[in-house]
Amino acid sequence: MAEAHQAVAFQFTITPEGIDLQLSYQALNQIYLSGVRSWKKRFSRLRNSVIKGVYPASPSSWLFVVIAILATMYMRSDPSMGLIKMIQQHLPLRFSYIGQTMLSALVFSTLLWLSLILALRFCLKLLLSYHQWMFEQHGRVSNTTKVWVVSHASSCRKPLLYSYQTSLPHLPVPPIKDTVSRYLKSARPLLTDPEFKRMTELADRFESNLGNRLQRYLKLKALWATNYVSDWWEEYIYLRGRGPIMVNSNYYGMDFLYVTPTPIQAARAGNTITALLLYRRKVNREELKPVRLRTVIPLCAAQCERMFNTTRTPGVETDVLQHWQDSEFVAVYHKGRFFRLWVYTAGRLLSPREIEHQIQRILDDLSPPQPGEEKLGALTAGERVPWFHTREQHFSSGINKRSLDSIERAAFFVTLDDEEQGMSGEDPAGNLDRYAKSLLHGKCYDRWFDKSFSIVIYKNGKSGLNAEHSWADAPTVAHLWEYTLATDAFQLGYTEDGHCKGDVDRSLPSPQRLAWDIPSEVPEVIETDSLAVAQALADDVDCHVFPFREFGKGRIKKLRVSPDAFIQIGLQLAYFRDRGGFCLTYEASMTRLFREGRTETVRSCSNESCAFVRALESGEAEDQCRRLFKLASERHQNLYRLAMTGDGIDRHLFCLYVVSKYLGVESPFLKEVLSEPWRLSTSQTPVQQMELFDLKNHPDFISLGGGFGPVADDGYGVSYIIVGEDMINFHVSSKHSCGETVSTPSDAFIRV
């Protein structure tokens, strides 16, 4: 109980001689250093608030404006055109004439400076609102775009992570006529003539009657809210789902494909945890560079705010995302036991070697799980309502609440898995599939699926990540994971014997076992209401991961075709050969060009892509197929651009549907549109920080990317990552319960 003793700053006893005060100077020193660290963070936040509050100007520019005004006044010129004298007349304080003049000049200079900031910010917002450049062909740039590029390049100084937030434009509400028209065009290849005629009639009635009424409410929300989609999207698509979030919502990220930096589990955990905390420090200090599109256009960084110290808590009708300002510990799970691992001491971050030392203590701890502790994580893997009731009844007070708080308030969750995963072995393909399934659901109780993200460190040193989806989208988590892998392998590194670098303070208190007092009926509830549901879901999912190395984006770009369009058309071809037809296809696109933007859907199955597939399969002439493929790729690129610039289809229709529910009116058109199944759900994981990976000197340090479960019971989930010039990694998921789908690729898959 040494750590419990050190947690007490002082003790006192009453004796006949008076009060005997026993101070623990070590504990008081820890309190002092922690306070210093806390105040440093507060000062840093205050400084950053000032810097980003005046962006794109700088705080020092205020002094320049003051000096300029005073200099012109010294030259007996009034730059304020009488405003300084007017301010001087209304000053309530009595000063000398010179003092009143100086104070009036300072007030005017400050007001002028603030006005200039607002003008600059307005100009920056106008620049960021211009999106026509995305629709112009390479080599055919308009004069407007040329002026825009020059203006943007010369407009901004070095920004902080959130400097652009107030200058980003708001997501516009598309005209309802345009949305309905685009929807009908996207639905045409999937409907027969009678079905399309019926859908057109429903759309026309909706557009001319109820649609305009719903649109007015939506425009009112767009005027009032920062983003007319994001809050409803988070609430109704993610937090209100009552089914398991494991497999259905959460997604995973993988380690390097060919290499494992160290085979020592504790060492890999030490560097990984350190890298994540260094990333958190950059986020807190806003030292991360804003992610930019084509190195110029900033993307919204709002999703970074809830990356750490965040958890999802269950409710009856809806879950709640809880975020804490800071956390100095991580939660660790190993062989059925939960630990709280402090990662700061004396106001400093533990070294990687010290974290490795602490992790090794957990691995060497042979104490058995407490009754009901081992499978406690299954509550987060099953249905949400049973988890809520169990939490309210048994984890809302006492020792159980304190231990649960330690998990939920942790910076993130770490699982020290007792299995080995990775590509190596006699069956590399099968091993990759098992690796993906392990990251997606594990044993259904050895992950905490409610945490914003959980890190998994396997027995052989392989690592991975499982992320909860409601707080952010995959590119945000991918940015974090790229930094973590690169920092682990290339910055922190390991000693020759595979251990973390740095010194160890062996007087550190051991990680704290979390204590539980779980009633005997809870394990039965976990087994029947949560684990059974989660296990059935996990057993049903079929995952396949494969690196495609026959060619990559280098060869595709030589054809003057977008690599993403090429892959999406290839997926249409593969699905047609697999199922003999076409289906509604979902490709995730981001809308982070706008403030608080999340995602939009690109409906990849188009008239043009279907025409190409039919022509190819019917054996038409090569020239004809090439022409149709070119049209299909151009169409896909245009759909992607429309989605990115706020002219997508599905988020607008989704919000109109939400408004209709609030008004208590039914729309047959909206009800039918939103009930259509996405049998092919796809997503590209972009590589955002290629500069962190030296593929020329370290070609084996290639990330596998990540994947997710299928959206429809009879469909596929396909994730892919384009790595370098010659490789594309695919993650395919489906369900064993559907006899018509199988994730293992055949010769039909991407044979374009």
From TrEMBL:
In the UniProt entry, which residues are flagged as the active site?
A: H469
Bilayer topology annotation: Multi-pass membrane protein
The EC number(s) this enzyme carries: 2.3.1.21
State the source organism's domain of life: Eukaryota
Q: Please tell me one Gene Ontology term that the record gives under cellular component.
A: mitochondrial outer membrane
Q: Which reaction does it catalyse?
A: (R)-carnitine + hexadecanoyl-CoA = O-hexadecanoyl-(R)-carnitine + CoA
Keywords in alphabetical order, please.
Acyltransferase, Fatty acid metabolism, Lipid metabolism, Membrane, Mitochondrion, Transferase, Transmembrane, Transmembrane helix, Transport
Write down the PANTHER family for this protein, in alphabetical order: CARNITINE O-ACYLTRANSFERASE, CARNITINE O-PALMITOYLTRANSFERASE
Q: Which GO terms describe its molecular function?
A: carnitine O-palmitoyltransferase activity
Return the similarity comment. Belongs to the carnitine/choline acetyltransferase family.
Q: Which residues form the Choline/carnitine acyltransferase domain?
A: 171-741
Q: What is this protein called?
A: carnitine O-palmitoyltransferase
User: Where are its TM segments located?
Assistant: 54-74, 95-120
Name the lineage. Answer: Eukaryota, Metazoa, Chordata, Craniata, Vertebrata
Look up and give the organism this protein is from: Cyclopterus lumpus
* Domain (Carnitine O-palmitoyltransferase N-terminal) ranges: 1-47
